[in-house]
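Researcher: Sequence recovery benchmark, item below. Answer with residues only.
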């Protein structure tokens, strides 16, 4: 048995018995392996079988196509990486949280570049809206802040995926955890405190303690390919909706809407409700498409 550690145009990298090899798939294979997949190899080193997945973090491919793109498979932990500067975006973080929750992946928010931030508490306060107060790791690759805390979370046999926008410092974190210059790191721009995009493909690394980490490129689009009926990512809105006058309240024009009242009272941001509604529409659309494909 081997595990996919790199996916390229015409070949794969796999880890087997602690050794990394390059190989190709056998012609008869249907579903293409993804980063983190467990596979079987034949005596010639060809991938012949994709083993069942524990989970698969996926999204709809960018653009108008309706295909699925598997970002990582067999994941235990998800680290949403964002820098403590203008990159910090609650709406984007929400979507990463939902994507990980659908796959039953435990997640943490990793704030990077803390050494360049004058008011880190401002970002911690913002994260409270998402219920992440106890799941945040503040880090700095420059002075080592929070890096050991992050490393301690990675346990033998477990797999963590790092997700976030381009230039937020994922590659620097990977280099520290791997103990080598595994990923290229770009210099920080003095004008806006952002690094340039350096990760161009997904790749998995095995740490000395037997844990695995998967680095991913920044994603411009985070559209869901599948979804769950209920997401605790928006548990606050669901709880408010229980007090609406009408059971099927759309939180638009109905009277005695508890969600609209929470917005009026300043206890819920209109942007968060808008994000919730958009996500629900996407999940509903994707589930309809999947049902239609099953019938056909």
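Model:
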């Amino acid at each position: 048995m081997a595990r996919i550690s790199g996916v390229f145009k015409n070949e794969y990298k796999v880890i087997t018995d602690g050794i990394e090899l390059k190989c190709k798939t056998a012609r008869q294979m249907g579903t293409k392996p993804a980063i983190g997949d467990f596979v079987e190899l034949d005596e010639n080193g060809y991938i012949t079988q994709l083993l069942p997945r524990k989970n698969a973090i996926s999204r709809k491919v960018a653009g108008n196509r309706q295909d699925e793109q598997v970002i990582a498979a067999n994941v235990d932990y998800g680290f949403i990486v964002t820098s403590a500067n203008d990159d910090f975006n609650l709406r984007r973080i929400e979507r990463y949280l939902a994507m990980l929750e659908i796959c039953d992946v435990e997640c943490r928010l990793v704030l990077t570049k803390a050494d360049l931030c004058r008011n880190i508490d401002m970002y911690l306060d913002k994260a409270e809206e998402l219920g992440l107060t106890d799941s945040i790791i503040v880090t700095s690759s420059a002075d080592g802040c929070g890096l050991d805390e992050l490393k301690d979370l990675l346990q033998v046999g477990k797999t963590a995926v790092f997700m976030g926008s381009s230039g937020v410092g994922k590659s620097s974190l990977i280099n520290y955890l791997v103990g080598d210059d595994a990923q290229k790191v770009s210099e920080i721009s003095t004008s806006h405190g952002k690094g340039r995009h350096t990760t161009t493909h997904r790749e998995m690394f095995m740490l000395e303690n037997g844990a695995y980490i998967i680095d991913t490129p920044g994603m411009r689009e985070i559209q869901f390919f599948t979804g769950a009926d209920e997401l605790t990512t928006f548990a606050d809105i669901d709880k408010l909706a229980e007090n609406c006058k009408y059971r099927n309240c759309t939180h638009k024009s109905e009277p005695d809407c508890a969600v609209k009242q929470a917005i009026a009272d300043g206890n819920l941001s209109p942007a968060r409700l808008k994000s919730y509604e958009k996500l629900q529409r996407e999940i509903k659309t994707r589930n309809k498409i999947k049902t239609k494909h099953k019938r056909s």
